[in-house]
Specification:
Elements (H helix, E strand, L loop, with lengths): L6 E5 L2 H4 L7 H6 L16 H15 L3 E5 L2 H4 L8 H16 L3 E5 L7 H5 L8 H16 L6 E3 L6 H14 L12 H18 L14 H21 L4 E7 L2 E4 L4 H11 L12 E5 L3 E5 L2 E2 L19 H12 L3 E6 L7 H20 L4 E7 L18 E4 L4 E4 L1 H7 L4 H4 L1
Parallel strand pairs: 1-2, 1-11, 2-3, 3-4, 4-5, 5-7, 6-8, 7-10, 10-11
Antiparallel strand pairs: 8-9, 12-13
Helix pairs in contact: 3-14, 7-10, 12-13, 13-14
């Protein structure tokens, strides 16, 4: 039997690289005064039009896999109305991957949703799992015969709870009166009222429950239900395809007295989702750094420790550590669906990738079911609220002329598909 190809590739999200996803909730928020975005995505990396050239670039560098998202807002721009032309666009991306011997890894929801979904209540509404399942069924029917090996239903399903936890952490930094130091509560109340008013104008609801909104416990249940319904649909229509979920997880470490706090975070970020992924074929690990907990809670990176443009501690060893810890509880296949570094120094990126992949290969040699590594991101892109200020890419982006230029790190990553590098 031929050994299954180990995947070495890169990843993108349509909302960050395609440009002009005009029927999406994110596009709407980019132009809102209270939307929270530094700058609009506009044409982004124009990947909607350059995908074939970009995929060829991956192939020429040696990569053998590409994770990208199908955009729900393009495929179902109006409630219940599907766009065959847009569906065919994504099928052509799959075909381009096949043409260049690139394994397509498809994500069906990478944060961005149709604007109409938010009007219907978004990710706090009980109707959303059925809407998502209907979209997944439409896509799955069109993927018959395409021999898709991996599908991620939902990217970082825990994002809403992570954001809620982050806001809670900010609120805990308080003075003796129980109020955050320097917090202007009156201004905050005014801002909330402005947001409600603008949400009503744009979405028709006061609270726009987009996927990346701080999520209630019920909203978290809705996301989990949506995933399970999608798995049922995909297993029925595409029985040969491996289906899974991705979560954002960090390498959680602790100092004296901090174990309980670290364990609570692991429960919240990963163990809590084990019942949701029990019927999945694989799990998508998305990890970028570590977090260290003391008896007081999560600590900031130690003074003098190198940090990335995102403010994360430089710690590529997180990949190996997270693989091992996830495998303790989840025995299915594992795929690194995202790992990377935001830096303007490509020599640092190469060093980061080398350390991360050395850990991956060590786990693989020991027999852990790790099936591939997909670096985030293929190209410098629109990094959500941060705009175009973060350089995660293996490829640089000249936004004025839409020129995509490979960095040395692209070829370095591609070298790992060669047999002598995999040993």
């Amino acid at each position: 039997m031929t050994e299954e190809k180990f995947l070495i590739g890169s990843a993108t999200a349509g909302g960050q690289v395609e440009g002009n996803n005009t029927n999406s909730d994110t596009w709407a928020q980019e132009y809102m005064k209270t939307g929270g975005y530094k700058e609009p995505s506009l044409d982004a990396a124009d990947h909607y039009h350059t995908y074939r050239e970009d995929i060829r670039m991956m192939h020429e560098a040696g990569l053998n896999a590409y994770r990208f998202s199908f955009e729900w807002a393009r495929i179902e721009p109006e409630k219940g109305k599907f766009d065959e032309k847009e569906m065919n666009h994504y099928l052509d991306m799959v075909d381009a991957c096949r043409e260049y011997d690139i394994e397509p890894v498809i994500t069906l929801l990478h944060f961005v949703c149709p604007k109409w979904l938010i009007t219907e209540g978004g990710w706090e509404a009980d109707t959303t799992p059925d809407y998502f399942a209907r979209y997944v069924e439409y896509v799955a029917e069109h993927l018959k015969g395409k021999n898709i090996r991996y599908i991620v239903t939902i990217n970082e399903a825990n994002m809403g709870t992570l954001i809620a936890g982050y806001l809670e952490k900010i609120m805990r930094h308080t003075d003796g009166a129980g109020l955050q130091i320097g917090m202007d509560l009156e201004k905050m109340a005014e801002q909330q009222e402005m947001t409600k008013k603008e949400n009503l104008e744009v979405f028709g609801v006061e609270n726009a429950a987009v996927f990346t909104s701080p999520r209630s416990a019920h909203g978290d249940e809705i996301v989990c239900t949506a995933h399970k319904k999608a798995v049922e649909v995909l297993h029925r229509i595409l029985p040969e395809t491996k289906v899974g979920l991705s979560l954002s997880v960090r390498d959680l470490q602790y100092t004296e007295g901090g174990k309980e706090n670290a364990d609570k975070d692991w429960e919240k970020d990963f163990l809590h989702y084990l019942p949701t992924i029990e019927n999945d074929d694989f799990f998508g690990i998305q990890t970028y750094t570590r977090a260290i907990f003391s008896a007081k809670g999560e600590e900031d990176p130690a003074e003098g420790m190198p940090v990335t443009q995102m403010g994360y501690e430089y710690y590529p060893e997180c990949v190996e550590h997270v693989i091992r810890r996830v495998h303790e509880s989840f025995k299915g296949d594992l795929l690194i669906t995202e790992n990377g570094i935001a830096t303007d120094d490509d020599t640092v990126r190469i060093r980061y990738i080398e350390t991360a992949l050395n850990g991956v290969m060590k786990c693989r040699e020991e027999g852990l079911p790790i099936k591939g590594y997909l670096y985030w991101s293929f190209i410098d892109n629109w990094e959500w609220q941060s705009g175009y200020t973060m350089q995660f890419g293996l490829v640089s982006l000249d936004r004025e002329n839409q020129i995509h230029t490979p960095k040395p790190s692209l070829a370095f990553l591609g070298s790992y598909t060669k047999s002598d590098r995999r040993k």
